[in-house]
Amino acid sequence: MFCDSRYSSSSTSSRCRWVCHVFLSFRGEDTRKNFTDHLYSALVRTGIYTFRDDNELPKGEEISKQLLKAIEESRISIVVFSKGYASSTCCLDELAKIMECKDAIGQIVILIFYNIDPSDVRKQKKEFCRSF
């Protein structure tokens, strides 16, 4: 679901025009029908324009240019790390783009660790070790 309202940012970068306040990055099969649905609903209910991709990409398929654009046009990205996040090439591609936007345009990145220990990601243990 793409955001349908425009938000003009008064950020330090005058070249940015935010279309969405928040971009949600998550592994669909891990969190779509529970945590991410609740988070998305809470954000929208409070008036925060939020992008959430409702389409499941077939395994091995690249993320679309439209999705990359949605990342670029969001002021904040929320990354929901879950057990299967790193096993998805699409999730890792999204994460790479998010970090690129963080460095290039100052996008705010918020990390959420859903049913995993943050050290599993940081030290690439358990599921993250196998994926990397």
Structural class: alpha/beta
**How does the major sheet shape up?**
4 strands, parallel
Beta-strand segment tally? 4
Q: What is the CATH class designation? A: Alpha Beta
- The CATH architecture classification is 3-Layer(aba) Sandwich
**CATH superfamily membership:** Toll/interleukin-1 receptor homology (TIR) domain
- CATH fold-level label: Rossmann fold
* Order of H and E elements: EHEHEHEHH
How many distinct domains? Answer: 1
Mean pLDDT comes to 82
**SS element count, helices:** 5
Helix content: 40-55%
Stretches where pLDDT is under 50 for at least 5 consecutive residues are: 1-15
> Which strand order do you get reading across the main beta sheet?
2-1-3-4
Can you put this structure into words, describing what you see?
It is a single chain. The chain is of the alpha/beta class and 132 residues long. The protein has a single domain, classed as Rossmann fold (3-Layer(aba) Sandwich), CATH 3.40.50.10140. Helix content is 41%, strand content 17%. The chain is built from five helices and four strands; from the N terminus they run βαβαβαβαα. A four-stranded parallel sheet has the order 2-1-3-4, sandwiched between helices. Helix 3 (89-105) links the parallel strand 3 and strand 4. Helix 2 (65-72) runs parallel beside helix 3. The N and C termini lie far apart (30 Å). Mean pLDDT is 82; it is low at 1-15.
